[in-house]
Every structure is written in structure tokens, then in C-alpha cells.
Amino acid sequence: MPSKYQTFDRSRLQIKPLSERQHDLHLDRWMDLDDEPPSYEHEQLAQVADRLHRAKSAGAARVLIMGAHVIRAGVNRHIIDLMERGFIDHVAMNGAGVIHDYELARIGATTESVDRYIRTGEFGLWRETGEINDWVSEAAELSLGLGENVGRRIHVSDFPHRPLSILAAAYRLSIPATIHVGIGYDITHEHPNCNAAAYGASSYRDFLIFTHTLQRLERGCVLSFGSAIMAPEIYLKALSMVRNVASQEGRRIVNFTTAVFDVWPIRGDFHKVLDKSDPGYYFRPHKTILVRTIADGGESFYFEGDHRATLPALRKKLTATAAP
Asked: 20 to 30 A Cα–Cα from 119, which one of 157, 181, 300, 317?
């Protein structure tokens, strides 16, 4: 039965080249490993570094879930270095993260002014960025994950700045990089070549790859950087799935570490869920990642601060701390 409703005709859209876009972030935003980051100190960073060392020694999962703003903070080289050193063995990000990763690798710049381009109807409608949609369709055709295929494509490309690509590094290192997409969330979904079925197939495959990694979470670590919704939601569902299977096999997945890095000020004891009358109750990383899912034996940590400071600070602790 046909739908009662009409859909927007995407063939009417005017798509412009990236060369006509004013970019808000350029290469000088991305720090080298020896650059001095903003100062950040927290006595519990050393504990998280210790848990990551122990997880690595045990072969347990070391998962980084990140929002796209982490890429915009300019810390790609720090993330890639932690992957190369074995402190991260799975990276999860949202669809916006793919866009920033791709644009940075291709042109050495990313991010547009919403305020400027939404007024003229140009926001998000840039020709080169739409290539991501072709790669997503290809991922579905080849039964690959979205992150895997985009990483593969950047890795074999001639993009001048591909060493900055987290996705390409993940593919090179055979580390799963999974992309967790919400339809209509990303500028690529505006484009005429967007295939929603391909996004569904490839991103759902990524969710199952992510869930497979969490089977190794006992004695492992989950780090959430700047993701207020995607990180707690995919983690919550995947954890329930792996605990369901573990329970059938007489096992438990309870002894692990979670750490949230964000700019949200959590009032009081972050190990306790706030009352529903408190607006802070609805900050999902707090109640989901820091409290409910580690209640049976895990431990959690919270670090408030800019990602440009906190992620390099964690890397510094990791590289300065000997393995236990």
C-alpha cells in the first residue's frame, strides 16, 4: 500500500564544492604529540591509566566511545598513538565523527558555520562530503561495517592528510572502528545519494561488532569522551546483550572500569543517581555509565574538562606509567 504522504525531492538540491565553503577549523588546530596541551590535573587519572594497563595485559576490552567534538578538539594524533600502543582496541563514534574525520583527511579542514549557511540553505550540501554516502552503500553491498569501509577507503586514498584519520588508522591496525548513526542527524543525509537502507545495514553491523567487543569487557575499560546520548545508549544495550549470553554460560561481566570525560558539571557524588527533579538526572552518561551498569562490582570515574586538555593528560599518564 503506498504512503499517504509525499516526500521531499532531493534532485532539486544544489550541491556546491567544498572549495566554496568557509571552514571554521584548519590544520593548525590539530596538535602534534609533542605540543604542550592545556593544563589538566586530576588525581584519579593515574588510576584510570592503571586500569587500562591491566586491561591491556589481560587482553580485555579497551573501548573509546567519542562524540564528534573530540575530533574538533584537535587530538587525533593522541588517539591514534593510544591505538598504536594498544591502550585502545575499539573506537566508536557517531556519524558526525565520520564527516570530520573524512574532511580533515581530504582537505585539511572541517566544520562550517551553521549560523552562516543555514540562512542560505547551503548548510551541509557540499559535494565532496557526499562521497561518504557512496562508501556507505558500498559497505552494505560488501557486508562490511560502516566504519570499516570508510577507514579502508581513506587508508588507500591519496588524501594528503590521511595520517590524521582515526578511521584509517583503525583499519591499518585492524582495530574495530564502529559508527553509530541516527538517520537525519548528519549532513550526509541531506544528499541525493544517501541510501538509508545502506546506512541501516552497515551501522547496525557496527553495533553488532561493538557488542562483540563488549564480550571481553570483564576486567576491561570503557572510556566515554563527549557523548551525552550515543555512548550511554549503545553501551547500555550492548552490555545487556553480552550479559544475557554470559548468564546462560554461568559467567558474569561485572568487574570492569568506566570513565566519562565531559564538560558537564556533576553536582555531588557522581557514584549516585540524582533525583528525577534535578535536571542533572537526564545527563545519561552519569546514571548509565557511572552508576547503574557498574553497580555489581565495577568502578567508575568522572573527569570534567575540555577534551583538548583531558585526552592528552590521560595519554601522558598512560605513557609515563609502567605496566603493572
From this structure: 181
